[in-house]
Amino acid sequence: MEEPKTIYLKDYKPAEFIVDRVDLTFDIKDNQTKVTSILNIHKNFDIADKNTSLVFDKGDFEISSVIANGMLLLPEEYESGGGYFKLARTPDIFDLEIISILKPEENTSLEGLYKSGDIFCTQCEAQGFRKITPFPDRPDIMAVYSCTIIADKTQYPVLLSNGNLVDSGDLDNNRHFVRWEDPFKKPSYLFALVAGDLEHIHDQFTTKSGRNVDLKIYSERENIDKCYHAMKSLKQAMEWDEKRFGLEYDLDLYQIVAINDFNAGAMENKGLNIFNSKYVLANPETATDEDFLNIQGVIGHEYFHNWTGNRVTLKNWFQLSLKEGLTVFRDQEFSSDLNSRGVKRISCVRNLRGSQFPEDAGPMTHPVRPDSYIKMDNFYTMTVYEKGSELIRMIHQLIGEKKFRKAIDLYFEKFDGMAVTIEDFIGVMEEAGGLDLNQFKLWYFQSGTPTVKVERSYNPDLKQLAITFEQHIAPDRNQSKKKPLHIPVKFAIIDNKGNDITPESKSLLELTSGRQTFVFGNIPENSLPSLFRQFSAPVKIKTDFTNEELAFLMANDPDEFNRWDAAQTLFVNELKRIITAIQADKELSVSPNLIKAFKKALLNQHTDHAFLAKALSLPMETEIKNHFDLVDVHAIHRGRLFLKQQIAKQLKQHFMDLIDYCSKSDPLSLSHGAMADRSLKNLSLSYLGCLKETDTTQLVLRHYATAKNMTDEIAAFKILSEIHPDIKQTAVKNFYSKWQHDKLVLDKWFAVQAGSSLPNTLNIVKSLIKHPDFSIKNPNKVRSLIYMFAMQNHINFHQKNGDGYRFIADQIIALDKINHQIAARLSSCFNQMKRYDNARKIIIKKELERILCVPTLSKNVYEIVSRALE
C-alpha cells in the first residue's frame, strides 16, 4: 500500500473558509438516507484571497446535487473524490446546498451515520462528520446547527438530535418529521442524531438558579428497567458539578441513548449523549459492582464534557488532552467524592502503570500533546487521557484547590464558546495560581515516563534526615535528550510508632532539577519518608527501602495509596526472587516476613474492606512483566501461581473465616460497605480456589450456585475457569443456559473463557468466534473475546509456538475490512515485542510484516504496525 501522509502540528493554520450555520435534513428510508446540508459560508480573508479554492473533507458517498447561491452546479463544476470536495472559485459570502446519498446499513466502521440493530445513530468524533456530508471537518470550525429528521413513524417513532425540539408533525405515507435547533455554536464532531423505536425513562433536575432540566434516558424496550442507576448517576453528576466547580447545565433538556454497537464508551454530543449500552444498562442481577461504578464514572465524564470540551473546545486535534485529560480528572474527582477516594486512586494508578507506562515505553510513545499523527483515532490513548489527567492533578496540587477553582472560573470567563490550546489553559492556571508553569509545560511536550531514584542518609548526631531525588527520562523516538521536569512530591515523615512528624510547610516538595537534596532536622532515628503520597506524579519510583521497611509502611502509613503501594512493592520483590529461582531451577519458597505482613493486614478489622481487597491482590501477569527488561512468560506465570498458592495454604482458615464474615452483607445493596465486603470475600475465594483442592473447589462451586448478584456469580465463574477444564466447561454451559438472553452478560461469558490460563484456551477462543452469539462487527463482542485473549491472557497469547500471534494477526486483518478503529486498537497488543525472547520476536515480526503487506490496509492499522516494526 502507499505510505499514508503524516499530519504535523507545526503545519496547522486556520481554515480558509468559515461555516457560520449548518442546516441538515435527513430523509431516512430503507437502504438509503438522503442528507441535505445547507451551509452559510464566508471566506477567512486572514488566510484566503479571491482565488482560494474551497476544499472540504468528504467520505465515500454519492453526491446527488450541489447548489451554490441558488444556482445548480453541473458535475464538471465541482470535484468530488479521493476524500475531498472542491469548488475552484467561490464568492466571499455564499450559501452552499449539497445533497448526499448515504447507505448507513452498510457502514460497519461505526463512524458517521450507521445502523446499530434497528437504530440509526451517529458517531462524529474525531473525523466522522465528513462521512455524512462534505464539510471542513475540524474542531475549530464552530457553527450553529439545526437538524430536521424525516422517517417512517412506525419503525422510527423516536427522532433525536442536539439542542431543543422546535417543531414536529406527521407527513404522508405514515412518515413524520422533527426539527431540532441547538442554540450554542459547536464543532462538527459534536453533532448527533438518533432514530429508532425506543423507550425512555424521564426525570428532572432543578439547577442552582432554579431552572428545571428534563432528563431522558433511552434504550430498547426490553432494557428500560436497567436505566435507573444511570439516571441516578446523571443527577449526582449535575449536582456535583454545581457544588465543586460552579458549573450549571445550559439547556432545558439532557438526553442519553444506549446503543449496542459503539466503538468507544460514550460520546458527549451536546445535549444528546450516545452511549455504549455497557455504560448505561445495569441491575444487580446482570451487572457487577465494577459495572455500577464504571457507569457512574462514564455518565459523569460525558456530562462534565458539557463545559470542558463542548462550551470550550479544541483549536486542533493535537490539543485533545485539553478536553479529555481535564475531564478525566473531573470524573475521577467525582467518583472519589462519592465513593472511597483511596480505593479510586489505587484503581486509577494501577490502570496508569499497567497500560500507560508501557505505552510510554513502546513504539507508539508520544507526548500528551502529540507532534504528529497519521490517523487521529490512534491518539485516543492512555497517554492523552490518563496521563493527561495526571498533569491536571499535578497543577491542582501545585496551586491548591482554591486557586485551581479560581483558574477554572477564569478559563470559562475567557474562552467560553471558543476553540483553544493547552497553552491557553496553562496561561489561566498561571494567572490565577500565581505560579510560573513554564517548566511544567514540558510534561505536555516531552514523551516518556520519568524514573525518580530516591536515596536517604541519616546523621544521628544532628538528627538530620537527608533525602536525595534524582530524575531521569530515557531517550525515545520523539526526543533524544530529555529535560528535567517540574515534579511535585507529596511528602511526609513517619516515625517508628507510625506518627506523622512532617515538618510544617514540607508536605509538598518540588523537584525542578536533575538531582536535588532536601534536609530535615529534628527527625528521630528509624523514621521513614512517605513519598509521592496519593501518587502525586506519574513517575516510576526507585527507593532504597528494605522489605522490613515496606512492611512497616504497609501497616502504618496514614496515606492509603502508599500503604497499597508498599504492599505491591513487597509482592513484586518476592515475585522477582521466586522467578529468578525458577529460572535457575532452584527450590522455591516464600518469605515468612511477607506471610506475616499479609496476615497482619488480613486480620485488621479496622481497615476498609475495599482497600484491603486492593492491597492484598497480587499484581497480574501483565503487570509483573513490566518489571522485567526481558519477559519470561512461563516463569512469571508459574511464579505468580506459586506465591498465590503458598499464601492460600498458610492462611487458609483465615480466608475461610473472612468469607463467612463478609457473606453477611446484603447481596443486593450498592452501598460502599456491601461492595467492599463482596470484593474482599471474592478475593479470599480466589486465593482458596487456586489451591484446586476438593474442599476449596466445592466451596467455590457452592458460591457460584448460590450467588444472588452478578458480582459474586462472575467472580466464582472466573475462579472455576482456572481450576480444571471439565469444571470450567460445566460452568460455561450452566452460565450460558442461564444468561443467553442478555447480550451484555454474554460479553462477560466470552471474556471469562478468553481470559482462562488453562491449556486449550486458544482453541476455545477460535471456536467461540463461530458462536451464533458472537459478531465480529460488534466492538463489545470483539473486546470481550479477542481483545481479552490478546491483551490479558499473557500465558496463552504468548505461546512459544506463535499460534496466539498468528491467530490475532488473522483477526486484525479481518477486522480491518470491517472496522479500522477496532483493528488498530487490537494491533497494539504487539507493541511490546522487543521485550520478549528472540524466538517470539521473530514470529511477531513476521506476523506484523504479513499485516503490513495487506494492500487494502487502513491508515489506522498501518500507523500502529509500522511503528512496532521500526
UniProtKB/TrEMBL annotation:
The protein's required cofactors: Zn(2+)
GO MF entries: alanyl aminopeptidase activity; metallopeptidase activity; zinc ion binding
Catalytic reaction annotation: Release of an N-terminal amino acid, Xaa-|-Yaa- from a peptide, amide or arylamide. Xaa is preferably Ala, but may be most amino acids including Pro (slow action). When a terminal hydrophobic residue is followed by a prolyl residue, the two may be released as an intact Xaa-Pro dipeptide
Keyword Metal-binding in annotation: yes
GO biological process per UniProt: proteolysis
Peptidase M1 membrane alanine aminopeptidase domain location: 230-440
Entry EC number(s): 3.4.11.2
Signal peptide: none
Pfam family, one: Peptidase_M1_N
UniProt domain Aminopeptidase N-like N-terminal: residue ranges: 24-190
Record domain Peptidase M1 alanyl aminopeptidase Ig-like fold: where: 448-543
The keyword Manganese appears for this protein: no
Family: Belongs to the peptidase M1 family.
Function: Aminopeptidase N is involved in the degradation of intracellular peptides generated by protein breakdown during normal growth as well as in response to nutrient starvation.
Protein name: Aminopeptidase N
Species annotation: Desulfobacula toluolica (strain DSM 7467 / Tol2)
Gene responsible for this protein: pepN
